[in-house]
Amino acid sequence: MKNYSTDPETTGGADDREAMSEDLHDLFLDELADLYNAEKQLTRALPKMVAAAQSQELKTAISSHLQETQQHVRRLEQAAESLDEELPEKTCPAMEGLIEEASELLEEQKGKPTLDAAIIAAAQKVEHYEIASYGTVRAWAEQMGHDDAAKLLQETLDEESAADEKLSEIAMTSVNRSGEE
Ligand code: ZN
Ligand code: FE
Ligand code: FE
Q1: What are the angstrom distances between the C-alpha of 106 and each of 118, 121, 128, 176?
Q2: Among all ligands shown, which has an atom nearest to the Cα of 30?
């Protein structure tokens, strides 16, 4: 439980704020490391989605996001370098789970007209996880005055959002309609 006492000895001092910002910095690095691992997992998983996709439009969209994802890996390295930090080794269990669920779904949907709709659903879950994570680390970077890192993270966040929108667009036009036939 946090102590909300108004005793000036125990609350709101400069020391508290300093401790908070050091802790936030560590948490920030930890989240960057989590994303770094998540993005690397994705560079291995996305080619399987490209191969499984039926429509050319979906194949193209996912493979161009694969290229962006390789850039996301590099931007996280650059963000750490801009702070003279190294990213700790980490595994992102959330991305492991999302990828595992995606491959189960792809297996179940093999040969069905709804396969592309399933791939889009799985890919959008991944994008939403990334959008949530990048939104958070970008905000923390700004809060701590890490402007270079904030800019790099915003660039990736914009690409994740664009990829998500592109997937929605494909779902609305071709894919979901063919599932209704
Ligand atoms: Zn990404
Ligand atoms: Fe994670
Ligand atoms: Fe992404």
Answers
A1: 7, 11, 19, 16
A2: 2
